[in-house]
Write a structure and sequence with these properties.
By secondary structure, the protein is of the alpha/beta class. It has 20 helices and nine strands.
Length: 535
C-alpha cells in the first residue's frame, strides 16, 4: 500500500468513525421501547454480575454468558443507569460499522468502504428486544473481516484470528457461532484448494482446532456456568431443542414465501427503495458479466461466501418465521449490496462513481436527519423514565410509564432494605429499578418455559427460605399471546396456590382491562405476606 493509499484509508476510516458517532449519538439517552420482561432481564443481569453473581447458575439467562459481564463493566465505569448500557451498545454498533468498512476495503476502495459502513449504521435494523445481540453482530462482522482477509491473503494469522473471534461469538450466541465456524472452515478449505496448496501441518492443526478444540472450549466454559442445574433448567436457558421456544416451528414452505414478501414490501415502500432496487439489479447484472469476462476468482469467492453465509444465518427465521430473526443476515445483505455496486462502478468514469456514492450518502443523511427529529420529539418529561436507575427517554405510552413509576415507588415504600419480593410472570425490570435481588434464580414463568412440579417445589422452598415479603403479579399472568398461558391454569399451579395461601392482595395498579402486551397495556398487583395471628 502506497503512502497516498494509506492516507486515503486512514482518512476514510476516521470519517467512518465520526459518521458512526453522529448517527448513534441521539441514542445515548434514548431507547424505543423498554419491556418489563426482556429489557428488565438484561438490565438485571448486568447489575447482578456486578455483584458477583453468575448467569444461569444464579439467575435465568437465555443467551451466551459473555454480554452480562460486558454491560456490567459499563455499569461499573459509567454508573448504574440505562444510558450506561446504551453507551455500551453504541460502542458495539460503531465498531460493527467500522468492521464493515474494514471488510469492504479488503477488495474495494476506502470510499466504497465508508459508504457501506455508514449505510450499515444508518439502516441496520436493531434487535429491539435485547442488548445482547449487538455484541453478536459486532463479532460476526469481525469474523467476516478475517475470512475475507484470508481469501485475499491466505495467511495463518487471518485464519486463527477468525477462530478467536468465532470463539468469543460462541459466548454470545452459540448457534450463530457454529454457522460462522462452518463457513470459516469451508473458506480455508476452498481457498487453499483453489490456490493448489497441499495440506500441511498448519492446515491440519487449523482443522483440528476448529472441529475439536473450539467445541471443547465452548463446552468447558458453558459447563462452568451450567454445572449444578437440572436438564430442564439448562433447556430453559438454552432453548435449542424442539418445543423449547415460545414460537411454533413452521418450516421453509411457509417462511421462504414470507421472506420474499418482506423483501417485496421493502422494495415497494417508497420511490427511493424502488430506485435502489433498480441500482442493485443493474449492478448485479454488470457484476456477473464482469466475473464471466475477467474470471475474477476472489470476487466470485466473496460473493459465493456472502450468499452461503446469508443462507446459513437464516436458520432461526426458517424454523420460526419470526421476522426479527432475519436481522442476523443483514451484515451479509449489506455487504452483498455494496460488492455488486462497487464492482459495477469500477468500470465507469470517476464523475459517475462520485455521483452514485454521493447520492447514496445524501439518502442516508436524510434518513439520519429524519430519525434524529423523531427521536428528539420523544425527549420530553412525559417520556423520561427518571428514577436513579432509569435516566432514559423512551417511547412507551404514558399509562405504561405511570404504572412502572407507581409500582416501583410502592415496592420501595413497603419493603425494608433486607426484604425481597417475587416478580412474575416475567417482570425483571422491577428487580432492577428497586435494586433488589431475585429471591429465586428463576426470572421467568410462562407456559413455554415448561416448569415441572419438582422445579416449582424448589422455587417455593427458595422463596420461603428467604421469607419474601411480597409478590408482584403483572397482567401478563394471563395472556392470549402464543406460549404465555395463564398462571395456575396452564402453568405453575403450585406457585399460584402458594401465592393465594401465603399472600393477600394489597395494591392494584395500571391497566387490567386490555390485553397485556410486551411493553404496553401493563398492570401490576402487589400481594403482601399475610400476618400470622397470635394464639
Amino acid at each position: 500500500m502506497t503512502n497516498q493509499n494509506k492516507i486515503s484509508f486512514a482518512a476514510f476510516l476516521i470519517l467512518t468513525a465520526l459518521c458512526g458517532i453522529a448517527i448513534n449519538y441521539p441514542y445515548h439517552n434514548f431507547q424505543n421501547f423498554i419491556a418489563q420482561g426482556d429489557h428488565g432481564r438484561d438490565l438485571y443481569a448486568a447489575a447482578a454480575v456486578l455483584r458477583g453473581e453468575m448467569p444461569y447458575k444464579d439467575f435465568w439467562w437465555v443467551y451466551g454468558p459473555l454480554m452480562p459481564y460486558y454491560y456490567g463493566l459499563m455499569f461499573k465505569l459509567f454508573g448504574l443507569h440505562v444510558p450506561s448500557i446504551l453507551l455500551g451498545k453504541l460502542i458495539l454498533n460503531i465498531g460493527a460499522g467500522l468492521g464493515i468498512f474494514l471488510t469492504m476495503t479488503r477488495f474495494f476502495s476506502p470510499a466504497a468502504g465508508f459508504v457501506a459502513g455508514a449505510w450499515f449504521m444508518t439502516y441496520y435494523q436493531d434487535f429491539f428486544f435485547t442488548y445482547n445481540h449487538a455484541g453478536g453482530i459486532f463479532l460476526l462482522i469481525l469474523c467476516i473481516w478475517m475470512h475475507w482477509a484470508y481469501i485475499k491473503e491466505p495467511k495463518n494469522k487471518n485464519a486463527y484470528l477468525a477462530l478467536l473471534f468465532t470463539f468469543i461469538l460462541g459466548l454470545i450466541k452459540i448457534n450463530f457461532a457454529l454457522t460462522t465456524l462452518l463457513i470459516g472452515v469451508l473458506t480455508v478449505l476452498l481457498v487453499n484448494r483453489l490456490n493448489k496448496k497441499t495440506i500441511n501441518t498448519h492446515e491440519k492443526n487449523f482443522y483440528v482446532l476448529s472441529c475439536i478444540g473450539l467445541p471443547l472450549l465452548w463446552y468447558g466454559v458453558y459447563s462452568i456456568f451450567l454445572t449444578g442445574l437440572t436438564v430442564n433448567e439448562i433447556r430453559q436457558c438454552l432453548p435449542y431443542l424442539g418445543g423449547d421456544e415460545p414460537y411454533n416451528s413452521v418450516g421453509p414452505l411457509q417462511t421462504i414465501p414470507q421472506w420474499a414478501q418482506i423483501i417485496l414490501s421493502n422494495i415497494r415502500s417508497s420511490w427511493i427503495s424502488l430506485g435502489l432496487c433498480a441500482l442493485i439489479c443493474l449492478s448485479t447484472l454488470l457484476t456477473g458479466l464482469h466475473i464471466l469476462k475477467t474470471k475474477d476468482k476472489n470476487l466470485a469467492l466473496i460473493i459465493g461466501y456472502a450468499l452461503l453465509f446469508y443462507a446459513l444465518n437464516m436458520h432461526e427465521f426458517i424454523k420460526s418465521g419470526v421476522f426479527y430473526r432475519l436481522f442476523w443476515t443483514q451484515p451479509l445483505s449489506i455487504l452483498l449490496t455494496f460488492i455488486v455496486i462497487g464492482t459495477a462502478l469500477a468500470n465507469f468514469a470517476k464523475p459517475i462513481r462520485f455521483l452514485v456514492w454521493s447520492t447514496l450518502c445524501v439518502i442516508a443523511a436524510c434518513s439520519i436527519w429524519q430519525s434524529t427529529v423523531l427521536i428528539n420529539s420523544f425527549k420530553n418529561p412525559a417520556h423520561f423514565l427518571g428514577s436513579d436507575r432509569g435516566q432514559v427517554y423512551i417511547t412507551n405510552d404514558r399509562n405504561w410509564m405511570q404504572t412502572v413509576v407507581l409500582t416501583t415507588k410502592t415496592l420501595n415504600a413497603n419493603l425494608k432494605a433486607d426484604e425481597l419480593f417475587l416478580a412474575l410472570p416475567y417482570d425483571c425490570l422491577y428487580y432492577y429499578l428497586t435494586d433488589k435481588r431475585t429471591p429465586t434464580r428463576q426470572l421467568i414463568f410462562f407456559d413455554h418455559i415448561k416448569i415441572p412440579l419438582e422445579q416449582e417445589e424448589r422455587i417455593i422452598q427458595e422463596l420461603e427460605a428467604r421469607k419474601i415479603a411480597a409478590v408482584l403479579l403483572s397482567s401478563r399472568q394471563a395472556a392470549h399471546e402464543h406460549g404465555l398461558g395463564t398462571l395456575g391454569v396452564t402453568y405453575c399451579p403450585m406457585m399460584a396456590q402458594y401465592i393465594n395461601t401465603i399472600f393477600a392482595p394489597s395494591t392494584k395498579i395500571g391497566d387490567w382491562t386490555n390485553e397485556p402486551g410486551w411493553a404496553w397495556n401493563h398492570g401490576t398487583y402487589i400481594f403482601k405476606r399475610k400476618e400470622i395471628p397470635h394464639e
